[in-house]
Amino acid sequence: MSLAQRRILLGVSGGIAAYKSCELVRRLRDLDADVRVVMTESATHFVSATTFQALSGQSVRVSLWDAQAEAAMGHIELARWAERILIAPASADILARLAHGLADDLLTTLCLASAAPLYVAPAMNQQMWAHASVQTNVETLRQRGVHLLGPASGDQACGDVGNGRMLEAHELRDALAASFGDGSLAGLKVIVSAGPTYEDIDPVRFIGNRSSGRMGFAVAQAAALAGAQVTLVAGPVSLATPAGVTQRIDVRSAAQMHAEVLAAAAQADIYIAAAAVGDFRPNEVSAHKLKKTCDGAGLSLQLSENPDILASLSAQPTHPFLVGFAAETQDVASYAKQKLSRKGLDMIAANQVGEGLGFEAADNALSVYWADGSIDLPRVAKAELARQLITQVAQRYRASRAG
Ligand code: C5P
Question: Does residue 363 form part of some domain?
Fold first, then answer.
């Protein structure tokens, strides 16, 4: 893992976890990162600027109105300089200011003025973290493509126990290092499908599923970070296109996803099918909203099966390296292995859905199977899990092409 010469702007906001950010600067410097620290005014009440200056070997900035510092490196220049911005700790206040686009101090101004990917490591009392306003702000930021690192659960400085602890310095450092990718898919074209599909019943109703698309979007991002040229075919989701994705094609139904993936597959080296494709669609889509009869007769829908995208591809004489997903509620391993052979896949990533894992959760765990091997990727945030999955896919892909 390397961060050599990587330009990291570390934003420190006001919270007791600021003491952990001193350690973070050390860990980033261990990997030869070039670190500049910007503190909010509140942060200086927890740790002094002199501490960060000594650790980073660079002057620390707090105010937008520091004429001397502006003359040395203007704030716009600093915003352009950064390859990554990490705010650790990110207090409830700075999350709110970021979510609303405020630029009332140097750090928030830099975040608006920079095109660098933004990472936030929240740290606060568990009750604050659980507050609806904080959660709404976090969701806004997430949808805008801001990367959330943590928080973790456990003992808090205030004596509470719960969710809101900042991740440890080494975890934050590893996440930043991973964000630069390893080039394992360099030069390859990868299609990723993500999200649910909606099968229309009438102009206002559809049959859908609970896929959020987050795992597939994380996979698309991880593939892009690994150097691939990525086409993301997305079902109806409300997620920002991950940085580095070359092309995004939005679809609604399984039939549309089938058509778009097959069209793109002719040029692709790898297809990763992370979408939760609807298995059935209504035989007929009513042109007008179906009316209640109020006679207790109910309504029967005739459904027909959608074509299987992966199976269609594997039936073709030449096709990309195929990676499927299997979301199961029981007997994960045996169902996944059956799917691997039935659909003619090169790899399958299986997960148990339910109990805080799977479709709507922030974390996930996967067991990955291929013809003569398997690996368990334990529960972790979807972005990190996607990175680990891509490492496996790259290895198996290279092995299959070498053999
Ligand atoms: O058979 P099942 O739907 O559980 O298989 C899941 C895997 O198959 C996923 O990778 C999904 O994207 C893919 N799939 C597909 N075409 C379908 C249904 C599922 O490619 N019509």
Answer: yes
